[in-house]
Request: fold
Amino acid sequence: MINNLQIIWVVFTFSFLILCIFHLKQAHSEIEKFKNKGQIKNINGLSPGVIEFIEDFNKYIDKQNSDNKKINYAQAFGYLLAAITSIISFLIT
Reply:
């Protein structure tokens, strides 16, 4: 027979698993790189300062995407561990 404490552990388990799945999905989403679609031009094409800015900005976006992926994987792993702990607590009670 399931008691009230076990119901709470089941709710925690599903909550942690949902959060784990959410962060796994977030780990695969990325910010798109900046693309100049011809709006920023001078007579001879893009000015060197604008080209340098776009390259630097895209490097920043790549770094953010990499960091976000690592952070979301770490959070997903933490929620998975919390779900496993909740299942063990369910079995113990």
Summary: The two ends are 11 Å apart (CA to CA). Helices lie at 4-27, 48-92. The chain has a mean pLDDT of 89.
